[in-house]
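User: Please run a holo structure prediction.
Assistant: Happy to. Please share the sequence and the ligand.
User: Here you go; the ligand is flavin-adenine dinucleotide.
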Amino acid sequence: MIKRAAQSVAGRTDAVVIGAGHSGLAMSRCLAARSINHVILERGEIANSWRHERWDSLRLLTPNWMSTLPGYDYVGDDPHGYMSMQEVIGFISGYAHASSAPVRTGTTVTSVELYQGCFRIVTDRGEWRCRAVVVASGAFNVLVVPAVSKAVPEKVTQLTPRHYRNPQQLEPGGVLVVGASATGVQLADEIRRARRPLRHCRRRCQGTGCPVATANRFGTRQDAGSECIGKNRRSTRGQTCRCP
Ligand SMILES: Cc1cc2nc3c(=O)[nH]c(=O)nc-3n(C[C@H](O)[C@H](O)[C@H](O)COP(=O)(O)OP(=O)(O)OC[C@H]3O[C@@H](n4cnc5c(N)ncnc54)[C@H](O)[C@@H]3O)c2cc1C
């Protein structure tokens, strides 16, 4: 039998909530309302995703009046406005403060397992034992990068929205934005406003295989399933791949 290296038991409680985004904090608030002892384990800071995984100019797509959490509503004077990132961070942090959420920041959960009739939560700061676990670690934590990106030459820098912050961060030259939903459209708009040569591609799904066009620099091949938005239609030296 392999013996697990002994870890200190950091604490015992009724429930452990993993993640201090708005889901984890809302759950904490509801647990507290029922007098259920609990702790929130957060690998970074409160509202970590908004602090570290969004671009600088991002504003919520949802209007302020829709920003409500259990026992906590938007109370500003601009109900039809859209929060900036700093405002979102302030809103979520304010909620944590107002509800005295028991957050342990800087604590990464590495595993959860059943152990002697309760849960053993292993973190990089010791173990927790509890009777219930709420996983509120986020809905968008795993990047989905299409396989076609592997075919892009190494000299072309590729960024995902998680690592994109602003146009100044981009190397000189043309920019291709792939994807034209909320994120792609916002980034394309910002990059174009920064006067960078831009191509913007989106995919139209056509039943089974969806053709995707990708590009090296400005070279973009247009095929049946892709549509390019941008004023400069240039070379067709791009590579064309198919979705798996
Ligand atoms: C680009 C973008 C724009 C968006 N715009 C909007 C919008 O306009 N309006 C809207 O309503 N929603 C928007 N969303 C969706 C919104 O971000 C999510 O719905 C929301 O963040 C989910 O909240 P959450 O608490 O479930 O997860 P998160 O906010 O992601 O919180 C999860 C927390 O868990 C922590 N965590 C993860 N793993 C561990 C671990 N192993 N141990 C400890 N802690 C861990 C993370 O650090 C994080 O703090 C947007 C999302 C993206 C990506």
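The pocket of flavin-adenine dinucleotide is lined by residues 18-24, 41-44, 48-49, 54, 60-62, 108-109, 136-141, 161, 183 (CB under 6 Å).
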